[in-house]
Amino acid sequence: MRNTNSKKVTWTYSCWLLTPFCRRQITAGSMAVHVAINTAAVFVILTTASITADIFHQKYEYKYSFKGPYLAQRDGSVPFWEYGGSTIASEENARITPSLKSKKGYMWTKNQTNFDWWIIEFTFRVTGRGRVGADGLAFWFTEQKSMDGTGQVFGSADKWRGLGLFFDSFDNDNKHNNPYIMAVVNDGTQAFDHQKYYCNFKSGLGHIQMHLFIVSDGVGQQLAGCLRDYRNKPFPVKVKVEYYKNTLTVLFHNGMTNNDLDFEMCFRSENVFLPKFGYFGLSAATGGLADDHDVLKFLTYSLMSPEEFANQQRAQVADAEREKLSKEFEEFKSKLEQQKQDFRKDNPDKRRDEETSEEWESDQQRELRQIFAGQSHMFEVLRELHRKLDEIVGRQERTLSLIGSGGGVAPVHGQTPPPGGMPYMGDVIRRQDIEAILANQMEIVGSSRDIKAFVTEINQKSNTIMSNQGKGGFGYDVQAFITEMKDQLNNLKKDMSTVAAKSSLPCPLQQSANCISTSVFLVFMTIHLIIIFGYFIYRDNKEAQAKKFY
User: Fold this and answer.
1) Euclidean distance between CA atoms 499 and 387, whole angstroms
2) CA distance linking residue 78 with residue 277, whole number of Å
3) 248, 274, 304 — which closes off a domain?
4) pLDDT by 10s per residue, the chain, length 550
5) Domain stops at, among 277, 304, 331
6) Cα(270)–Cα(12) distance, rounded to whole angstroms?
7) Region annotation Disordered: residue ranges (predicted)?
8) At CA 295, angle to CA 290 and CA 300, rounded to 5?
9) For residue 513, is it within any domain?
């Protein structure tokens, strides 16, 4: 089966159109993304007036594809594919690994590719009962197949030569940066970093600072990546991987809708050099946590440039045969036109009725058709413009990172250097990193506001308690009470001294039992006053303790 669909997209940007659109797109975004998009817009306007996508012809390759129904034969085999490990093939899908702990599975094409450029579209589901999944799914394009089923890299062997696109579900560093999609290119000599430590030294005025970074699951080796959630979605998740003229593009469909056109840009990386021929494969693995990794479709298309397609057509059809077919086509075409004219002459009424019914259109139908055509065109323009802007933002972020780091860096070990002496771009600040930083800043600002409100509330309550104590609290009551007691004691002493001076007669003998001395009376009054004084102190202490709860 051959599909010779061509793709050509041409966009023309102008200053008054691009800049407002960019501002609308980043109204709710971060400041860093705002600067990147505006810089990219100015860069595009100054350098070029149009961006034209590559033109290519694509052909469906059934020997490198599978889809349901009847995906597996009666004997359990999949045509042109071989699988093993924990993989289970059914009529509707291929379950690479079931939701069981410590399982590994794989699927590989039997035949090696015979084309240079390709597009892979595969549909899959990752479902599990837990909030966090493990370990993940992998797409491979390598020179050699890994068929042992004991690999440590998502169920496949390490030190591969080619491309590995990993869908990592497990959050190793507990930073909530998973599920994550990343691409890793290996030349066959590098071991995949499951966990690696990086040290960064900075020298200042009389001191040296050392920063320790821990990177897990190959983040330090990735070519590019994006943070996308693909677990437990209502519809199957779709991924499109395009490799054309050493440019790797990955588009992602999040599975929230059933629209086949809702793809968004995951990443685009240039100067990617893969093996010319290789095998396509899928693998998955589970650990302490387990998910079902189901692949429903895997469609492969070979890509050819217009020149290559024309050369292939010339090689397939000889000149003599092509002339013969062209002559036959012209004869059939002339006969068909002659028959149409004869029929119109023999049936003039039929011709008039057909022309009238075909040409007639009501005003309502015409308006609806025009509205639908306009809305469809606007939707296509916005979708393609969004995709182009994502590409521009990615390129501008890499450019800004390269300028900030002081120029190009050394290429990744094992990759062929790009032609023309173009510098490689190192690790860059990605959009998800900027969003994570801004989210942390917003969280810190919110926490600071809560702390400020809490301190203000405590200050208000403290002022209220102090004012209440100043008006009628414990300290004021005791001082007033002591002053009053001193005055009463002085008055009592004066009265007693006056009575003692005026009294000169001794007490009668018969009434001696009923008389008390002055000292006894004073002792009795003192004890009485001490009891009253203690009661007041006890009452004030209770009131002060009760005020502390408000």
Assistant:
1) 112
2) 22
3) 304
4) 444 444 433 333 333 333 333 333 333 344 444 444 444 444 443 343 333 345 788 899 999 999 988 899 988 899 999 999 999 999 999 999 999 998 999 999 999 999 999 999 999 999 988 888 878 999 999 999 988 777 888 889 888 999 999 999 887 767 777 889 999 999 988 888 766 454 555 555 455 555 555 555 677 888 999 999 999 999 999 999 999 999 999 999 999 988 888 899 999 999 999 999 999 999 999 988 889 999 999 999 999 888 887 777 776 666 677 788 888 999 999 999 998 888 888 887 765 655 555 566 777 888 888 888 888 888 888 888 888 888 888 888 878 877 776 544 444 444 445 444 444 444 556 777 788 888 888 888 887 788 777 777 777 776 776 666 555 444 445 566 677 777 777 776 777 677 666 554 454 554 444 566 777 778 888 888 888 888 888 888 888 777 665 5
5) 304
6) 23
7) 336-364
8) 145
9) no
Stated as kind and residue range, the H or E segment containing 371 is helix 363-405
* Residue whose entry in the numeric block shows the structure tokens 């020179």: 143
Domain count, the chain: 2
Cα–Cα dist 281/110, whole Å: 10
Q: What whole-number distance in Å separates Cα of residue 61 and Cα of residue 67?
A: 13
Q: Which two tokens stand for residue 19?
A: 């800049």
